[in-house]
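Sat 14:20. Reprocessing the chain from the morning session after the first attempt stalled halfway. Input below, unchanged.
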Amino acid sequence: MLYLAAMKIINGINNYISGLKPVYAAMGAFDGIHHGHSRLISMAVEAAHKNNGEAVVLTFKPHPRCFIASDKHFDLITTYEHKEKIISELSVDTMVVLDFDEVIAAMPPVKFIEELLVKSLKVSEVFVGFNFYFGANRSGNTATLIEAGAEYGFKVNVLSPIEIGNFVVSSSKIRLLIEAGAVNDVIKFMGRPFKLTGEVIHGDGLGRKLNMPTANIKVPDSGIIIPKPGVYAVKCRVKGAGYKAVMNIGMRPTVYEKKSSLMTFELHILDFNDDIYGEILETYFIKRLRDEKKFSDFKALCAQIKADIAFAAEYFDEIENI
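Finished this time. Tokens:
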């Protein structure tokens, strides 16, 4: 059966009004919505729809680690908006977004269960990953939930680790892969490419002078992790259409003689020459091609850029023919 109803979004647990249907709730921060997250949410959806229940995702904003480690730099894989969109495509009925604040951070696990799961959501079944922790100082775990479920009358379903290539799929592992530039492996873990979104801004016009026009992207400081500097084969979307492209992330050492601290994001979109200044461009990372490097002159730089473009075009043809 196909469920086409739009997902309801409830901001704040106090705004959730329980209905007549039993609640099947998947809980987690769900950063990146990787294969484990998707499977967990799908388990809740399948159980809810099989038993005429409500499939609920209970998640947090901000991410608990962003709040608890607010004095440290913690980068996310997905923006909240992107996470919401992905979850909405999994046939979830309702997403309840819990405000993660001082009160929630200090809440004992038993109170978390009583106040949120039992009194507010009135859960029939709960779905969590094997490494789910909650409550003050992360003192609650799956065993805590199972014990409480026996007392309060709800079932707890724990998803076992999912392995790909002898590695357990996790948001932490995906962050390491992105930092290393292994974006093709990220696709295996998430089921989709890593995405960055930014506005197309004016650059110095050098690419156009070299007959290789580029789109310079202003990536907002939104706490999203940035891939390792280098050159990537990417796909992008702008003005509702999709294109193939080559992207450079780095300091442009050939252009700037003095080392710059400003990270730049520059794309050459294949077979494209439209004016897109001011447009929002989504970039999907497919494969890392090489490190950024300083060339002896612009002629050598141009030759390498042409080689990058040719390699990317050939690579895209290969993967599309698989």
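Residues 298-320 form the longest helix (23 residues).
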